[in-house]
Amino acid sequence: MAQVTGIGGIFLRSRDPARLAAWYRENLGVPMSDKGTVTFHWVDHMSEDNPGTTTMALFANDTEYFGEPGQRAMLNFRVDDLRALLTKLKARGVEVLPELEDSEFGRFGWCVDPEGNRIELWEPADGM
């Protein structure tokens, strides 16, 4: 049967791809190339306790969850220590949103990249 087997990528428009790639590399540790690309291989980072999943979710057009109304997509990065990362980002002058959310899925926090894109940071609950 012909079907989708996973999310192949996330693509963002950028006014300055090289600068934005450097920001993601330096602040979030995303190992982006100078051309602004990275491929994650979940099998390298998964275990029985940590399956390394990626989620696709649809939101209503009028959602406020993404931040600015013009933002058509939001990145969600899985992180290993949300509080430590948020502290590091604040120290670097990155805009970190004050709210945190705890749920059965784990803990969530948000920051904003230099082009105004709201980014969700997710520390998964045990077993996720």
UniProtKB/TrEMBL annotation:
Residues 6-124 form the VOC domain. CDD domains: VOC. It holds the Pfam family Glyoxalase. InterPro entries: Anthracycline_SecMetBiosynth, Glyas_Bleomycin-R_OHBP_Dase, Glyas_Fos-R_dOase_dom, VOC_core. PROSITE patterns: VOC (PS51819). PANTHER family: GLYOXALASE, GLYOXALASE-RELATED. This is VOC family protein. It comes from Lentzea tibetensis.
